[in-house]
Amino acid sequence: MLNGAPPAIQRLSKINATIADTALALFLIVTSWLWALAEPDQGRLPADPPSLALILLVNAPLAARRRVPYLVLVVSVSGAVVYHLLGYHRGLNSMGPLLALYTVAAHRPLRAAFACSVPVIAEWTHASSLAPGVAVWSALGQALVVAGCAVSIGASVRLLDTRTRQLAELADRLHQEQEAAAHRAVTLERMQIARELHDVVAHHMSVISVQAGLGRYVAFSEPETARQTLDVIARTSSAALTEMRRLLSILRVEPAGEDEELYTTTPGLERLPALVERMRLAGLSIDMTVEGTARPLPPGLDLCAFRIVQEALTNVLKHAGDDARVRIVVTYDPDDLALRITDDGHGTPAAAPGGHGLLGMAERVRLYHGTITAGPLPQGGYEVAASFPL
User: Fold this and answer.
1) Domain locations in the chain?
2) Residue 206: how many other CB atoms lie within 10 Å
3) Rounded Cα–Cα distance for residues 101 and 96 (Å)
4) Distance separating alpha carbons of residues 124 and 91, to the nearest angstrom
5) What CATH architecture is 182-252?
6) Which of 182 and 148 is assigned the larger pLDDT?
7) For 84-102, what is the mean pLDDT?
8) What's the CATH code, domain 259-389?
9) 8 Å CB contact between 98 and 149
10) pTM above 0.85, yes or no
11) Strand 336-343 relative to strand 325-332: parallel, antiparallel, unpaired?
12) Percent of the chain with pLDDT over 70
């Protein structure tokens, strides 16, 4: 029932269960011995050291009933049978086998409990039939009722424990799905903000470009107009910077602290697992493989490799379709580093005239004397492959 609890609580629960079982075993031993001394059974052997040893044999194993229920039941039933066959008290030592049977029903499959109930019924029937005037069939009926109650209660407890555990797992799964949905919503919102950032900055830069051209044209002929254009450029550039800072501050906010390092430090290939996890939360199915022995790279090259994978995954998210599967292979060879990002989606369309994603990747790669190819695959999908000399 505590499968979803922290390890410390689970250990404490096990310790408490062991203490409770030990106390139960001691209670049965003490009460059985005192009963045997206080109320001797007429016509049966009195309490003596051998009977005390058998009382211990029947009840002491109950301290381990949750860990080894089958062994506890065998030892307890065997001790009770010997106790009664030797002629000791008829009313003692039947509770131990009954508790052992309940434990089997509570912690093991029901068919095992039915099988284990046979020796318990036989022992209880034998002990009850020793009383004067009690017929075997009457003793058997009583044993069936008692054993049936033990099995029924144990099975009910087991069913309740199973359902409680299933509910806990369902609640945990629901919580994880809610967190994943929240992460996906945040990621999609960030993509929207990135698009807004592009539109805002593009608008302001267009205004600045137009005003700069006008100012250069009238700089000498109309100084007042030139000053006005400079004022417009100053206000527009300030507004653009303000908008950019505001939007980037939103993009850098993480609802959970585990991904903050991806933004607060210069990323490299060691950050790929965090990037892959974020893209998975956004809906992509990604498989990443690292071949060779990973080793430290120059910071600029490390950042360049990371940005290539990031840009490729962003393109897949935008263009390849929701059902696309992505495979990332990072290969560390003695003399070079290779990156390969493939997907089986609809394929990334050719870059628009104003697009800079693939061009930006090519520029980064050339800066480090590497090579890059990007294009659709014959069997469908898209591939980005880059290689850098080390």
Assistant:
1) 7-174, 182-252, 259-389
2) 11
3) 9
4) 10
5) Up-down Bundle (1.20)
6) 148
7) 89
8) 3.30.565.10
9) no
10) no
11) antiparallel
12) 80
